[in-house]
């Protein structure tokens, strides 16, 4: 029922990457020990320094850690492509005409270890031996969603059953109801529960708090539905949270230190990307103008931090009269308003390069929620709860929602992307920023999610 949960998938990726890094480092250390501790100088053996990061990063880019569903043939092909690419890079880091045999054998050994590690981890993750028993308090739609999330990430949790309350409606399979709230302590012992998920549709009454305290003292974790959903999917269920949940959450705390670090990150990364791409701007200007008269750059009002409006800069990808008739409109699949080279610009995100100026000016961040137009923001704030909270941070060129979900062009898409935006704000960290940067590279390479 549904694809693998994205939050769990991120943890799986980190574990697989960690295992590969250890394998690559082990191979490198064995080679150094075999060479009596002698490591070539920086000019003759630069590949030694890059051995571990090149192998792991190539595997990441080739989506070795992101196979859904898992097939042995698929992992073999992706690992082979990743290791072939790694070998080419390592050769370039070394003298091209003097390729050490231990480099080639090292990559081959890594390929074998990587396949074995992937197969071993997959077998272990699918086994119920490592699964945690879960009881769900509630029998309504939220409780049913918990079961769907468990099925989307096999091996992580096992649903022991649902527990009814006096007020919650019943929309789950009745044969999976194992007892009532009054029996929660004995049910935890009977099913050896590791955790209880509070997934009530009706929250008023029906809970024996003192019994939940007893369960917690027995070592059973008590998790509310929004937190469980967040950990499993990498997004926050906006329809199931309230102001008190936001206040009591461990996240949503953007300190001055975090803002300073994020600003430094923005300036360094934006300056680097701008420096690397600036030489290509004359070619891009010609392509924008090709058979499409009008200005090269596109200026448009967007909503930024704290709801303040600013002017965003982009390379023009549509005709100059794109909105002369219908006014503001979301982009759509195979949009006829897009110019000949506009499709390529959008697919590769080239049209967004001028936004680096917005970042350097402090109007945008390199990473953050997508900046929307004022006309759309007004509508969305009226319809979608907590939509204004995404303006707690600066909008970004790329972001968690942009890399995890396709281009949004409807109300439903906006709700889904808000779930990811709130997750990003709630879990803002250096690690998450770097993860989004790497995921953005994959999005650009594989041309996913744009219109």
Descriptive notes:
- This protein is of the alpha/beta class and 451 residues long.
- It folds into three domains: 6-126, no CATH class; 128-234, 3-Layer(aba) Sandwich (Rossmann fold); 256-446, no CATH class.
- Helices cover 51% and strands 10% of the residues.
- It has 17 helices and nine strands.
- It has helices at residues 6-34, 46-61, 72-93, 101-126, 141-152, 184-191, 209-217, 225-233, 243-248, 256-277, 281-289, 342-348, 355-361, 374-383, 400-404, 411-426, 430-446, and strands spanning 132-137, 157-164, 177-180, 195-198, 221-224, 297-303, 309-315, 365-367, 396-398.
- The strands form three sheets. A five-stranded parallel beta sheet has the order 3-2-1-4-5, sandwiched between helices.
- The longest helix has 29 residues, at 6-34.
- Residues 1-5 have low confidence and may be disordered.
Draw up the topology in text.
Elements lengths: L5 H29 L11 H16 L10 H22 L7 H26 L5 E6 L3 H12 L4 E8 L12 E4 L3 H8 L3 E4 L10 H9 L3 E4 H9 L9 H6 L7 H22 L3 H9 L7 E7 L5 E7 L26 H7 L6 H7 L3 E3 L6 H10 L12 E3 L1 H5 L6 H16 L3 H17 L5
Parallel strand pairs: 1-2, 1-4, 2-3, 4-5, 8-9
Antiparallel strand pairs: 6-7
Helix pairs in contact: 1-2, 1-4, 1-8, 2-3, 3-4, 5-8, 10-13
> How large is the radius of gyration?
26 Å
Shape: globular
The tally of strands reads 9
Which class of secondary structure composition applies to the elements? Answer: alpha/beta
- How far apart, in Å, are the first and last alpha carbons? 28 Å
Largest sheet properties = 5 strands, parallel
The average pLDDT value, as a whole number, equals 85
* Secondary structure: helix percent: 40-55%
- Unreliable stretches (pLDDT < 50, length at least 5) are 1-5
């Amino acid at each position: 029922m549904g694809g693998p949960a994205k939050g769990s998938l991120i943890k799986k990726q980190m574990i697989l990457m960690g295992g590969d890094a250890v394998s690559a480092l082990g191979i490198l250390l064995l080679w150094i020990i075999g060479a009596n501790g002698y490591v070539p100088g920086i000019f003759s053996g630069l590949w030694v320094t890059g051995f571990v990061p090149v192998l792991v990063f190539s595997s990441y880019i080739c989506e070795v850690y992101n196979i859904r569903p898992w097939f042995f043939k698929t992992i073999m092909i992706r690992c082979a492509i990743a290791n072939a690419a790694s070998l080419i890079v390592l050769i370039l880091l070394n003298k091209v005409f003097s390729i050490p045999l231990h480099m080639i054998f090292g990559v081959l050994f890594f390929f074998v270890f990587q396949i074995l590690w992937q197969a071993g981890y997959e077998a272990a993750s699918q086994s119920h031996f490592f699964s945690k028993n879960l009881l769900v308090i509630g029998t309504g739609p939220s409780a049913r969603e918990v079961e769907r999330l468990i099925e989307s990430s096999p091996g992580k949790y096992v649903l022991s059953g649902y527990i009814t309350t006096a007020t919650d409606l019943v929309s789950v399979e009745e044969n999976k109801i194992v007892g009532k709230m009054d029996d929660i302590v004995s049910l935890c012992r009977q099913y050896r529960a590791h955790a209880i998920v509070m997934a009530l549709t009706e929250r008023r009454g029906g809970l024996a708090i003192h019994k939940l305290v007893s369960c917690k003292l027995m070592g059973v974790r008590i998790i509310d539905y929004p937190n469980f959903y967040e950990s499993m999917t990498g997004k926050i269920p906006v329809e199931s949270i309230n102001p008190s949940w936001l206040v009591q959450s461990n996240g949503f705390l953007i300190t001055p230190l975090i803002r300073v670090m994020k600003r430094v990150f923005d300036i360094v990364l934006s300056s680097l990307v701008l420096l690397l791409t600036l030489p290509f701007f004359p070619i891009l200007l010609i392509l924008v103008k090709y058979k499409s008269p009008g200005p090269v750059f596109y200026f448009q009002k967007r909503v930024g931090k704290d709801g303040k409006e600013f002017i965003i800069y982009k390379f023009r990808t549509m005709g100059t009269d794109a909105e002369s008739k219908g006014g503001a409109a979301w982009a759509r699949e195979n949009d006829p308003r897009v110019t000949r080279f506009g499709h390529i610009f959008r697919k590769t995100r080239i049209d967004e390069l001028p936004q680096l100026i917005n970042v350097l000016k402090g109007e945008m961040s390199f990473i953050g929620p997508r900046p929307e137009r004022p006309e759309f923001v007004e509508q969305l704030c009226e319809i979608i709860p907590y939509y204004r909270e995404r303006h707690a941070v600066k909008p970004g060129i790329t972001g968690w929602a942009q890399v995890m979900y396709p281009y949004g062009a409807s109300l439903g898409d906006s709700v889904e992307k808000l779930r990811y935006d709130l997750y990003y704000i709630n879990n803002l960290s250096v690690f998450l920023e770097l993860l989004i940067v790497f995921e953005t590279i994959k999005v650009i390479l594989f041309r996913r999610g744009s219109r």
